[in-house]
Amino acid sequence: MVRQAMATKHTFFTISSLSATFPIKPSESIKMSHNPNRTLIFSYGTLKRGFANHKLMMDLISHNDAVFLGSYVTDLQLPLVQGPYGVPFLLNLPGSSRHRIQGELYSVSDSGLRRLDELEGITRGHYERLPITLRSENDGVVKAEAYYGHRSFAEEMWRKSGEEGYEAYTQELANDYVKRDLRPKDVSFRDAISTFCSIGHS
C-alpha cells in the first residue's frame, strides 16, 4: 500500500467553520425526504446496517426518530482506523488519508440524537460530533454531521495506525470488534484509548 505522509499540522473543522467553507444546500432529493428540524448523521462504523450497534438505529427508526436516506462517501479524504477493542474511528485529519470513506446517511430527531451522543461518549472524550461533507452518485454534495474520534487523541491514533487507514468499515474488520459487555469492567474506554495509543512508544 502507498503510504502518505502526515501533515505536521491539521485543521479541525467545527460546525460554524465548515458552514462558512462549504455554503452548500442539500440536494433536492434530500430536501424532500429530510425533515429540516432533524440532524443529518453520517454513520461509517458499527451503527451501519449489519453491524453490532445497528440495533440502536433500528430502534430509532421504529420510533420514528431516524430515517435511512442512503449510502454516501465523504467529500474529503479522511483517516478511518481501528482503536482498542476493534472500535472504528473516523479522524478529523483531512488529507492525511488517500480514502474517501463509505457510509450511510440518516435523518435523526433531537431525542434520537441524544441517544447517539450517549452511545458515542461525546461527554466522555470518546468522540465528538462535527460537520462532514458527503457525496453520492445521485444527490451531489450534502452537509451532515459525523462522530469523529476526539481531537485529543486523533493524531496519536493516526500515528499508532501507521498512517494507514481503510476505505470502509467491513465485516472483516468487524471480526475484531469486542462488544461492551465483554470488555474489562475496571478499565474506562478513555483509558483503553490512551493505552492503545501509547503501546510501543518509548
UniProtKB/TrEMBL annotation:
Protein keywords: Acyltransferase, Transferase
Tell me, what is one Gene Ontology molecular-function annotation carried by this entry?
acyltransferase activity
Please indicate which superkingdom the organism of origin belongs to. Eukaryota
Cellular component annotations (GO), alphabetically ordered: cytosol
Domain (Gamma-glutamylcyclotransferase AIG2-like) ranges: 41-154
Q: Name one Pfam family in it.
A: GGACT
Q: Which residues form the active site?
A: E120 (proton acceptor)
The answer on whether this UniProt entry bears the keyword Acyltransferase reads yes
Summary of the function given for this chain in its UniProt record: Putative gamma-glutamylcyclotransferase.
Q: State the similarity comment.
A: Belongs to the gamma-glutamylcyclotransferase family.
What protein name applies here?
Gamma-glutamylcyclotransferase family protein
Q: Which organism is it from?
A: Mikania micrantha (bitter vine)
Record lineage: Eukaryota, Viridiplantae, Streptophyta, Embryophyta, Tracheophyta
